[in-house]
Structures are given as structure tokens and as C-alpha cells.
Specification:
about 100 residues, mainly alpha, 5 helices, about 65% helix, about 0% strand, globular
């Protein structure tokens, strides 16, 4: 929770983490956006909420969200492992939401 508060404090003074949109925003947005899945409430962090929405609204980010990563197509074992890991991740997220 403390990391989210630190980000909110930084974003109170800047539009993006380092002033201008940068790799810092891309790298941090990717894990901060999973706050619900991680069980971290950000209702009281308005600057962080603004930043999350601003990054998500960027066309390139939207495109990235809509295009899942591809497993190595020429290797069946890598594709199977990728699918299994993705399924486990989704099931874990679902069980946190439903309590199942």
C-alpha cells in the first residue's frame, strides 16, 4: 500500500512520474493497474487514479491491452506452458474475487 501512496504523492506534483510520459510510467502502470487483483484499494489516492486513467486512455496502451502476448509459435511445449501459466493466473484472480 505504501508504494501506491508514494506514487500518489509524486503524481500530486507532476502529470507523469518523471514529469513527461516515459518508460517509468509504462513500467509502473503495468503493475499498478492490477491494484484490485492485488487487493489494494486506491479510492483515497486521487492523483494515482487520474494517472491510471490517463495512461489507459493512450491509444498505444489500449492496443497493447487488447493484444495478448503470443507464445513462441514454433515450439509446442512453450505454447503449452504459456497457456497453462495464463490459465493459472486467471483462475487465481477469479478465486480472489469470488472467494472460491
Amino acid at each position: 500500500r505504501r508504494l501506491y501512496q508514494v506514487l500518489d504523492g509524486q503524481l500530486a506534483q507532476h502529470e507523469y512520474l518523471c514529469g513527461d510520459y516515459s518508460i517509468a510510467d509504462i513500467a509502473n502502470w503495468s503493475w499498478v493497474r492490477a491494484h484490485n487483483w492485488a487487493g489494494v484499494a486506491i479510492d483515497d489516492l486521487p492523483h494515482l487514479q487520474r494517472w491510471l486513467a490517463a495512461i489507459r486512455a493512450r491509444p498505444a496502451v489500449q492496443k497493447g491491452i487488447e493484444s495478448p502476448p503470443s507464445p513462441v509459435r514454433d515450439n509446442e511445449e512453450n505454447a503449452r506452458q504459456f497457456s497453462e501459466a495464463a490459465r493459472t493466473m486467471v483462475e487465481m484472480g477469479q478465486s480472489r474475487k469470488t472467494g472460491v
